[in-house]
From TrEMBL:
GO terms for molecular function: arylsulfatase activity; glycosaminoglycan binding; N-acetylglucosamine-6-sulfatase activity. Residues 25-368 form the Sulfatase N-terminal domain. The modification 3-oxoalanine (Cys) is found at C69. Residues 1-16 form the signal peptide. PROSITE patterns: SULFATASE_1 (PS00523). CDD domains: G6S. The conversion to 3-oxoalanine (also known as C-formylglycine, FGly), of a serine or cysteine residue in prokaryotes and of a cysteine residue in eukaryotes, is critical for catalytic activity. This is Arylsulfatase. Keywords: Glycoprotein, Hydrolase, Signal. It catalyses: an aryl sulfate + H2O = a phenol + sulfate + H(+). Its EC number is 3.1.6.1. Pfam families: Sulfatase. Belongs to the sulfatase family.
Length: 596
């Protein structure tokens, strides 16, 4: 009898454990490539609107933190800021799949964490740049029960893709439309996932609406290719003629301000460039509907979170720029995020500030894994209860290293000392495009502050200047700068606070990234910018170390990135002077005195 009771107890425990696993939500994550927010691409995806946005929540203040493909994706899938994951470029030595492996992330990222929680994990489409037909199994990508990856140098060729399935030698899909191939594979993995009792994660990364890229000499960045069934669409579309669209008066830092005004031929080409991008997204739109309908037929939709986002934004003609990304402008870093799932309000616009660093922590929390507490991001509030009193902050850390690369046929950036890219008359890559930036969004302010490797700085009040054409730190806008006030404080006082906060976010880790004001004020009630603007802190912020660079290097080299530590208020002084945040965190001395 005793042995029977022990057996029954074990069976009950196993059943309870199995039931617990089954109750965990499934996650379907769709990641497009270079999709814009500010040229209104979401308005041209009616099926996404119907099945995800109308049935879920749109996060209208969501940002990428590094506006280029591979670094953004590593940031997203690890939950670590780029300055901590150290994958900061498309290719070695500073980036790409080999760098991802070298830094140890192949064993420590979202899919491996989810597998620890009993999830089956699947992925198809683009993973990382420099993941190629030669190194696809050196080493194999870790963490997936099933995978089918697009491989360089064919990743961005819409009708010439090569893919590796579960680590097998690459297969050619010559003549087949890549987003359709990825959609078919995604539905296949979804079916495979439903054959098991475990919860599942399915990542899907079509290349649309990225440029069609051929890695020839020189590299060709053509318009996005689209399926023939969509060729008739959007014939009359034009890029919104906002204030920053090919402006009469230039704006931005020097390499942007020096760009010539675009002529009618280039403008016409750019409009068609964006039309092609929108057409390429129609295959993704159809895939979204197929996935949602399949989940519904299988009875899984009510227990599945569907995420939809992109790796980074995109500009075309804004600030006179040719097609591309890599800048700290809203066009490049402000991107779509929509989520539907259990307890996520339908037809809701969240209004909370979030970034790609937060997505892996969000999914780990959904899966019941506490590893998210050690990462640089913080879970995004999803449910109605969480959104009613969100624990989200006001800041987004943005950073970039290396060149700005023009795409399409036209454009010349920088000077002739930099290597040419593109086809025919395509342009010159701007090498001096390394910067650190801070987006700060509160109830009464919406700000962008950027420090460039050249020593140039930018400040935009996005509330009053949504198109970012008035850099108040440029001499052309000295009059506006002299009149500027926020909470009754002068422009100089505001910028001093922003620079100090950027000093924290540009090198923060874990909890410090969640609550950067606490590094500056660990023993006080300063939580947001308005708190820090109190006059009592004026001298404290004036005398902070300043964000700076020694040179415009192409990768994350800390020795070239100026001071790393801020002084902390913390109500203590050491021999009459505030110590660094790290000193005050880890040291204690009897001669410290209380500072009121």
């Amino acid at each position: 009898m005793k042995s029977i009771l022990i057996l029954l107890t074990g069976l009950c425990a196993a059943a309870a454990s199995s039931s617990s696993v089954k109750q965990k939500p499934n996650i379907v994550f769709i990641l497009t490539d270079d999709q814009d927010w500010h040229m209104q691409s979401l308005d041209y995806m009616p099926l996404l609107q119907k099945h995800v946005i109308d049935k879920g929540t749109l996060f209208d203040k969501h940002y990428c933190t590094v506006s280029i493909c591979c670094p953004s994706r590593v940031n997203l899938w690890t939950g670590l800021a780029a300055h901590n994951n150290n994958v900061t470029d498309l290719n070695p030595p500073y980036g790409g799949y080999p760098k991802f492996v070298w830094e140890g992330h192949n064993q420590n990222w979202l899919p491996t964490y989810l597998q620890e929680q009993g999830y089956n994990t699947y992925y198809t489409g683009k993973l990382f740049n420099a993941h190629t037909i030669d190194n696809y199994d050196d080493p194999p990508v870790n963490g997936f029960n099933g995978s089918d990856f697009l491989l360089d140098p064919y990743t961005y060729e819409y009708y010439r893709s090569r893919m590796t399935r579960n680590g097998a030698p690459p297969i050619s899909y010559e003549g087949q439309y890549s987003p359709d191939v990825v959609a078919e594979k995604a539905l296949g993995f979804l079916h495979e996932a439903t054959l098991h009792d475990q919860p599942f994660f399915l990542g899907i990364a079509p290349i649309a609406p990225h440029s069609n890229v051929r890695f020839v000499d020189p590299i060709e960045f053509g318009t996005a290719a689209y399926a023939k069934r969509h060729a008739h669409l959007f014939q009359d579309y034009k890029i919104p003629r906002t204030a920053n669209f090919n402006p009469d008066v230039p704006s931005g830092v020097s390499w942007v301000r020096d760009l010539p005004k675009l002529n009618d031929t280039v403008i016409e080409y750019h409009d068609e460039f964006q039309r092609s991008r929108l057409r390429s997204l129609q295959a993704v739109d159809e895939m979204v509907e197929s996935l949602v309908q399949t989940l519904e037929v299988k009875g899984l939709l009510d227990n599945t979170y569907v995420f939809y986002t992109t790796d980074n934004g995109y500009h075309i003609s804004q600030h006179r720029l040719p097609p591309g990304k890599e800048c700290p402008f809203e066009t490049d870093i402000h991107i779509p995020l929509a989520v539907r799932g259990p307890d996520v309000p339908a037809g809701h616009v969240a209004g909370v500030v979030s970034s790609h660093t937060d997505l892996t922590p969000t999914m780990l929390k959904l899966a019941g894994h506490d590893r998210y507490k050690t990462l640089d991001g913080f879970p995004i509030p999803l449910t109605e209860g969480e959104l009613a009193s969100p624990e989200s902050g006001e800041h987004v850390n943005v950073e970039f290293w290396g060149r700005a690369i023009p795409e399409g046929k036209y454009g010349k950036i920088g000077d002739d000392s930099f290597p040419a890219v593109g086809n025919g008359t395509a342009g010159i890559a701007a090498r001096n495009n390394t910067y650190k930036a801070l987006r700060l969004i509160g109830s009464h302010y919406n700000l962008l502050y950027t420090v460039w490797c050249t020593g140039e700085r930018e400040f935009y009040d996005v509330t009053h200047d949504p198109d970012q054409v008035q850099n108040l730190l440029h001499q052309d806008h000295a009059a506006l700068r002299s009149e500027y006030q926020l909470y009754g404080r002068s422009f100089e006082h505001v910028v001093n606070r922003l620079d100090a906060l950027l000093m924290v976010t540009k090198s923060c880790k874990a909890q410090e990234c969640h609550e950067p004001w606490q590094t500056l004020h660990p023993k006080s009630s300063v939580k947001v910018l308005s708190d820090a603007l109190r006059p009592k802190y004026d001298d404290f912020y004036t005398n902070q170390p300043k964000v700076s660079f020694s040179s415009c290097v192409l990768g994350h080299i800390i020795s070239e990135e100026g001071p790393q530590d801020v002084n902390a208020w913390n109500d203590f002084v050491i021999d009459g002077y505030p110590g660094t945040a790290r000193q005050q965190r880890f040291q204690w001395s009897g001669h410290w005195s209380w500072w009121t």
